[in-house]
């Protein structure tokens, strides 16, 4: 779901480029955000595409990195920094060359306090985004759970 509020925010004279936000190019395969990192930026993809991935360790100490979401132009990621200060929950890896807008979370929070009309619209947009991601995550979890029950023959006993 591409953001409609962030482009307006970037054009606002009170939200300054190179102070409150910056453009950052990325190459295909580059890690834009690393799981476990503690930076404080919200990102929007301007050009290109990226995968949201997580680190999964299997029983035999094998490591896999499944993709859980594909991001394209206008998509936001890293939005949880606006709500808590915990480390990143997933990594974002570029599929193609492109560019992101990196927005400093503290600057954004101050700006939104001073501009509640834009703040309300951004929060409404973020709640919609988080709701959609939660619904998709629930569907995937249900699918994996059902697969596990079938794979282990447990479904016959229920």
- What is the overall shape? elongated
| Sequence stretches where pLDDT stays below 50 over 5 or more residues | none
The topology string of helices and strands comes to HEEEEEEEEEEHH
Oligomeric grouping of the chains: single chain
SS field, number of helical segments: 3
Mind explaining what this structure looks like?
It is built from three helices and ten strands. By secondary structure, it is α+β, with helices and mostly antiparallel strands. It has helices at 5-11, 105-114, 116-151, and strands at 21-26, 31-33, 41-47, 50-53, 56-57, 63-64, 67-71, 76-77, 91-94, 98-104. The radius of gyration is 18 Å and the shape is elongated. It has a four-stranded antiparallel β-sheet. The longest helix is centred in the last third of the chain and has 36 residues, at 116-151. Helix 2 (105-114) packs across helix 3 (116-151).
């Amino acid at each position: 779901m591409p953001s409609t509020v962030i482009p307006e925010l970037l054009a606002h004279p009170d939200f300054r480029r190179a102070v409150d936000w910056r453009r950052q190019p990325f190459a295909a395969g580059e890690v834009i955000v690393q799981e476990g990192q503690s930076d404080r930026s919200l990102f929007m993809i301007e050009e290109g595409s990226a995968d949201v991935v997580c680190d999964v360790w299997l029983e035999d100490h094998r490591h896999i990195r499944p993709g859980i979401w594909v991001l394209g132009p206008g998509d936001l990621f890293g939005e949880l920094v606006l709500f808590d200060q915990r480390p990143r929950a997933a990594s974002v890896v570029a599929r193609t060359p492109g560019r992101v807008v990196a927005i400093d979370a503290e600057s954004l929070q101050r700006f939104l306090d001073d501009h509640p009309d834009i703040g309300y619209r951004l929060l409404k947009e973020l709640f919609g985004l988080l709701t959609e991601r939660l619904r998709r995550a629930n569907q995937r979890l249900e699918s994996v759970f059902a697969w596990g029950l079938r794979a282990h023959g447990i479904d016959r006993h229920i």
